[in-house]
Amino acid sequence: MADPNGHAVRSGRSPRQRARRRRAIQYVALAIVIGVLAFMADWPTIGHTFFDPALILNTAAHGLWRALWNTLVYSAGGFVIGLAAGTLLALMRLSEVAPYRWLATLYIEFFRGLPALIVFIALSLLPLAFQGLAMPFSPYGTVWAALGIVGSAYMAETIRAGILAVPRGQIEAARSLGLSPAQTLRQITLPQAFRLMIPPLTNELIMLIKDSSLVFIVGLSAANFDLTKFGRAAANNHVNITPLVVAGLGYLIITLPLSIVVRRMEARAASGRRA
């Protein structure tokens, strides 16, 4: 298109203007949806059922922090076991011995495909299958084992990827200096690999914290309740969902700081690669 003087002129909006207009339309549509939902909601019922102030205080004062502590203990123990077993499985996957690779692959694929709930049920029923068998430090031992089994299958692949990400030249340099394969692995490969794996392993820890909610499968006394079990019991006692909402906030108290740490570590790693 040209003006009267013959100069070409641009018609319509620029791509930036069109993108800005699309965003404005999306914001308006979202605001309308939120407004309609807010108008239709029964706020008094929602407040009484989910956010009863008296029940919030009662829940926080009677067992919440003990349940929060138990959740941390369950998750930390499962993570330690999963990390140790996952490291062993990753090394088996990278081994030159074929049976080791086969066993590790079978384990990883089996437990990655199996719901964590099934693992909890199986471990809780083991004493019925093997008379006289008792998990040490019960009920913590049962929960640690279940979380460790599930977590190790996922961590193994993360650790294997971290080991493979270590530059091959550094490994060859260590071998040329006379370090044995075991020394190279212990002093060169694993330390560098774990520095690379901190963000994904922290994500695995967050997943284990949420999987610890399956502890309700294991018979627990009130002193051993995790957040979910505690919230469900209190909600049933009071016939109100508020205690369960408070328990959910307890999970956020644990996981949100970890998520922030992961994002910062990933951003720092990305800026380091750009530099």
From TrEMBL:
<dbReference type="Pfam" id="PF00528">
    <property type="entry name" value="BPD_transp_1"/>
</dbReference>
<feature type="transmembrane region" description="Helical">
    <location>
        <begin position="205"/>
        <end position="223"/>
    </location>
</feature>
<feature type="transmembrane region" description="Helical">
    <location>
        <begin position="72"/>
        <end position="94"/>
    </location>
</feature>
<dbReference type="InterPro" id="IPR043429">
    <property type="entry name" value="ArtM/GltK/GlnP/TcyL/YhdX-like"/>
</dbReference>
<keyword id="KW-0813">Transport</keyword>
<feature type="transmembrane region" description="Helical">
    <location>
        <begin position="24"/>
        <end position="41"/>
    </location>
</feature>
<keyword id="KW-0812">Transmembrane</keyword>
<dbReference type="GO" id="GO:0043190">
    <property type="term" value="C:ATP-binding cassette (ABC) transporter complex"/>
</dbReference>
<dbReference type="GO" id="GO:0022857">
    <property type="term" value="F:transmembrane transporter activity"/>
</dbReference>
<dbReference type="InterPro" id="IPR000515">
    <property type="entry name" value="MetI-like"/>
</dbReference>
<keyword id="KW-0029">Amino-acid transport</keyword>
<keyword id="KW-1003">Cell membrane</keyword>
<comment type="similarity">
    <text>Belongs to the binding-protein-dependent transport system permease family. HisMQ subfamily.</text>
</comment>
<feature type="transmembrane region" description="Helical">
    <location>
        <begin position="106"/>
        <end position="130"/>
    </location>
</feature>
<dbReference type="InterPro" id="IPR010065">
    <property type="entry name" value="AA_ABC_transptr_permease_3TM"/>
</dbReference>
<feature type="transmembrane region" description="Helical">
    <location>
        <begin position="142"/>
        <end position="166"/>
    </location>
</feature>
<feature type="domain" description="ABC transmembrane type-1">
    <location>
        <begin position="68"/>
        <end position="262"/>
    </location>
</feature>
<protein>
    <submittedName>
        <fullName>Amino acid ABC transporter permease</fullName>
    </submittedName>
</protein>
<keyword id="KW-0472">Membrane</keyword>
<feature type="transmembrane region" description="Helical">
    <location>
        <begin position="243"/>
        <end position="262"/>
    </location>
</feature>
<dbReference type="InterPro" id="IPR035906">
    <property type="entry name" value="MetI-like_sf"/>
</dbReference>
<keyword id="KW-1133">Transmembrane helix</keyword>
<dbReference type="GO" id="GO:0006865">
    <property type="term" value="P:amino acid transport"/>
</dbReference>
